[in-house]
Amino acid sequence: MGGIRRHYGLQAPLKDRIQSHMTVKFDIDCLRNFIAIANAGALSRAAEHVGRTQAALSQQVLRLETTLQQPLLVRSGRGIALTVYGDRFLEHAQKIVRTHDEAAAELLGVSLSGKVRFGCPDDYARVFLPRLLQSFGRLHPQVLIEVVCAPTHELLEQLKGQALEIALLSLPDSPQRDQFLRRERFVWVGTKGGDAYNRDPLQLALSDPENLDHQVAISSLERIGRKYRIAYASASAAGLMAVVRSGQAVAVLTHTAVPPDLHVLPSSSGLPKLPSVGIIVRTSRRNASKLVSQFESHVRSVLPTL
User: Fold this and answer.
1) With b meaning 16 or more CB within 10 Å and e meaning fewer, what string describes 128-165?
2) What is the largest CA-CA distance in the chain?
3) Helices H, strands E: what count in the chain?
4) CA separation for the pair 262, 6 (Å, rounded)
5) 6-106 matches 112-306 in fold
6) Sequence-distant (≥ 6) Cβ neighbours of residue 179 within 8 angstroms
7) Total Cβ atoms within 10 A of residue 100
8) pLDDT above 70 as % of the chain
9) Distance between CA atoms of 193 and 247, rounded to whole angstroms?
10) pLDDT, tens digit, for every residue of 101-131?
11) How far apart are the C-alpha atoms of 296 and 167, rounded to whole Å?
């Protein structure tokens, strides 16, 4: 829940609530996005995560508040706060979404078993994989998910060669955002208390040139005429983070993937603003197996809420 603050809101008259509760209907998409807003603590961050506009999310919250006849959120200069009623409703929303997904999985995927070969970019593995795999494992304990962590361009090749059946991929941000499961901001990352961002030329720790972090870092620095040197190159996210932790260089990561012991460099560091990236899921075959289709549906359902 991060920095969510709780405020007391006025409740509708008890008589009105008793008369209306039997006809209340919740839209699952609204519930998922309400959960995303509560977890993010700000409409802007939630909008990036779920790939929707802030206006669309505001309309969904308003629809829920109208249905419940209660204020769920309080907006302030520091972000979004849950009212006490919103805090209580969050628990119910999480239960409803979880029950919905479990029921769908049970009815649509009875006795699923087998193996799925799943690819995921290295920087998303730490953040997304545990909850994705744990939640699917609870629904389908007989399914084995084999995971391959690699950059997007390598995952694409493995999908084409059908070495993988399904993969998460990173794509440059674009107006065609409806295909994104979520959007993530690229950020400059350094060690806490370090001054690597002040070096001239700037020392960079980047992955392969085919990767988006490498491309956006170089293009952004060249746009402002900042001198740089690729001092450390590695296909391993762990290797790059080790270099950043040493205080010798800065790196580019998606905001969600920043380890808690590292520091997102602010605009005052003088480094250029970076674009966002979109996350999609793709299968190797147009007519995927029932097992792969179920796992894809699970990823589409769960990833926007993480």
Assistant:
1) bbeebbebbeebbeebebeeebbbbebbbebbeeeebb
2) 69
3) 10, 12
4) 29
5) no
6) 278, 280
7) 15
8) 87
9) 9
10) 767 766 665 557 889 999 999 888 888 898 8
11) 9
The amino acid at residue 193 is G
3-state secondary structure 215-265: HHHHHHHHHHCCCEEEEEECCCHHHHHHHHHCCCCEEEEEHHHCCCCEEEC
The yes-or-no verdict on residue 14 having pLDDT over 50 is no
- pLDDT at residue 103, as a whole number: 74
CATH number of this structure's domain 6-106: 1.10.10.10
The one-letter amino acid code at 222 reads: E
Sorted by where each begins, the domain ranges of the chain are: 6-106, 112-306
Q: What is this structure's pTM?
A: 0.65
How far is residue 209's CA from residue 225's CA, in Å, rounded to a whole number? Answer: 19
CA 71 to chain centre: 26
Structure tokens at 296: 């894809």
- Look up tokens 């979404």; give the residue: 97
Helix pair angle (28-40, 54-68), 10° resolution: 110
Domain over 112-306 is classified CATH 3.40.50.970: no
Q: Which residue has the tokens 């997007």?
A: 152
Distant-in-sequence, close-in-space partners of 61: CB < 8 Å, separation ≥ 6: 30, 34, 37, 72, 73
